[in-house]
Amino acid sequence: MGIERHDLIETPLRPRIPLRSRDSASGPSGMFPVRRIYCVGRNFADHAKEMGAEAPASKADRGQPVFFLKPADAIVTHGVAAYPPGTADLHHEIELIVALGRDAPGGVLDPAQAGDLILGYGIGLDLTRRDLQTAAKAKGLPWDTAKAFDQSAPVSALLPASEVGPLGPRVLTLEVNGVERQRARLELMIWDVPDILHELSKLYALRAGDLVFMGTPAGVGPLQPGDRCLGRLDDLIRLDCAIAPPALSL
After folding, report:
1. 96-143: pLDDT as tens digits
2. d(Cα 135, Cα 158) in Å, to the nearest integer?
3. Under the phi-then-psi rule, with left for phi > 0, alpha for psi from -120 to 50, and beta for the rest, what region is 96?
């Protein structure tokens, strides 16, 4: 039987996120090529409770973190995400983003070494098809279709880690159409950044170009076409994103 030959498929470029210093008025100082997107679920006790999950009473009772992934090409950097197909209940989840600029050493990462890997921080929206997630949970099925869809990860530019400083006192907020919906201090995360990188390293080889969405606080809610989102990490990082009508072709 003959073998049909086709032209080679052109390899797409990696999605890239601008890296900006606060002192730079001339545009991005570099571009961050995204390799993988790791996401942390149930990392704020108040959000775990609003989703009907049991929240730990203390860090000693926190168990294991919940992880899921999004495809790298889910990244949106131009500030407009199309309302996705297959859902009537799209939700926002504002999150801190950690960008890795170095490969982790082999083996399990010591939390004390985690800071050496971090290039910068940003904020992003973990857009979620909540109705699909709820239906999958009810049947005990995976909920990839609720999280890992096209244009499901609008992100801000990244700020160098050296310009952010200690994360704990920083406040993460989200407004939708001028009304605040989410607010939390990062010190309320059940698993902090070193802890999460340590736990991820038990399961994956962490590499430069990896992003970690660190979980969302309470206040998640629905979005509609035409809605405008404004996320902030204090006055350091800002994310503007509009929800567009469903795209004919994503």
Report:
1. 999 999 999 989 999 999 999 999 999 999 999 999 999 999 999 999
2. 34
3. beta
The pTM assigned to this predicted structure is 0.92
Report residue 12 as tokens.
Answer: 């797409």
**How many Å apart are CA 40 and CA 186, to the nearest integer?**
14
Start-to-end CA span in the chain (Å): 37
Task: Report in angstroms the alpha-carbon separations of 101 from 8, 160, 168, 181, 192.
Answer: 31, 10, 21, 32, 18
Residue 184 tokens, joined: 């939390």
91: its two tokens? 């939700």
* Tokens representing residue 131 in the block: 């109705």
Closest CA to 216 of 42, 37, 58, 67: 42
Domain borders along the chain are 29-244
Q: Could you tell me which residues come within 8 angstroms of residue 186 by beta carbon, excluding any fewer than 6 positions away?
A: 96, 167, 168, 169, 170, 171, 172
Fold of 29-244: Fumarylacetoacetate hydrolase; domain 2 (3.90.850)
Residue among 108, 118, 115, 99 nearest 200 (CA): 108
